[in-house]
Design goal:
The chain is of the alpha/beta class. It is built from 11 helices and 10 strands.
């Protein structure tokens, strides 16, 4: 069945207005595959009939479900691996030196989807930080449905098999029937909140590290600039922004500086001129900045929940 043009135009416009994500012509197959389960659920013959019914009697619940169905993206454990290697080897050492080993780090995982990214970050931090250092992670997404799944911390064997190393599985998850459950310690370190990247940045900052990967590619240039501006407002001056491998601030927002790390790059608020790339063997860590006041909270101290207004992955 081929989606008719009117249906696609309506859905694309709805998604653009609600999330700023651009569904360009040629994505009809995506709209049809994502909305087919909703059509079947309500007994519609096909997606065209389902959307026609919604347009005739629109409700906020139906509109939200359509947008959420089209803004739920692919995710997996330690996705693309390089950002997590960079976190451990290049980002954390200078932050530890600047903050002190008794400090608490604040991380924002935007567009976190079903939670594999923030849990992967938490596993990395647990294994890499000094025992006296604590952390808290704010994980946000536009979709309340995927956030509920993330908050539960329960994953099937098939989901666990997608990128989670066996040692991490043993250390940080326990069996729950036929599924796997994230440990209570990691779940306590993460606060999941609904948030739209079109809105002001969530409370809980300023952040030491922001992960916003594989999201900006879906937005037009003005929206990218607006989002990057809001990120800069809640990132510490020596903080680090981690984008997807196909994303960059260069040519989008000149208030960011690109910093080569490992096999990729991260971004910092600062000079628009990117530093001259150094040989990979010479790049060990990000340069440490001036020390920020340390928060003398142990990782074993119960975490104060991060408050937030309710980002997408």
């Amino acid at each position: 069945m081929t989606l008719n043009r009117d249906t696609f135009t309506y859905v694309a416009d709805l998604v653009r207005r609600r999330s700023a994500i651009q569904l360009t012509p040629g994505k009809e197959y995506l709209v049809e595959s994502r909305l087919m389960p909703l059509a079947r659920e309500c007994g519609a013959a096909d997606v065209d009939a389902y959307v026609t019914g919604v347009r005739a009697r629109p409700t906020e619940v139906d509109l939200v479900r359509i947008v959420e169905a089209l803004t739920t993206n692919e995710t997996s454990w330690f996705r693309d691996s390089a950002p997590f290697v960079a976190l451990r080897q290049h980002i954390l050492p200078p932050l530890i030196a600047a903050r002190g080993t008794a400090a608490r780090l604040r991380i924002w995982s935007g567009a976190c989807s079903t939670g594999q990214e923030p849990y992967s970050i938490a596993m990395t931090l647990t294994d890499a930080l000094p025992p006296s250092m604590s952390f808290e992670i704010l994980a946000t997404d536009l979709s309340t449905e995927v956030l509920e799944r993330a908050r539960s911390g329960t994953y099937s064997q098939l989901e666990v098999n997608r990128g989670l190393p066996a040692p991490m599985l043993v250390r940080h998850m326990v069996r729950s029937g036929t599924d796997w459950q994230i440990s209570d310690e990691l779940r306590r370190a993460i606060t999941f909140k609904q948030h739209n990247l079109l809105d002001p940045a969530p409370l809980g900052g300023p952040f030491d590290v922001i992960f916003l990967r594989n999201v900006l590619i879906y937005f037009d240039l003005p929206t990218k600039r607006a989002i990057l501006g809001r990120l800069r407002q809640v990132l510490k001056p020596d903080g680090v922004l981690v984008l997807g491998a196909a994303e960059t601030t260069i040519g989008v927002d000149d208030e960011w500086a690109r910093v080569p790390v490992g096999t990729g790059s991260v971004y910092r608020p600062g000079d628009a001129t990117p530093p001259v790339p150094q040989p990979r063997t010479a790049v060990n860590t990000l340069p440490a900045a001036s020390a920020a006041p340390a928060s003398y909270l142990s990782r074993t101290t119960p975490s104060t929940p991060v408050t937030s207004v309710g980002a997408r992955r």
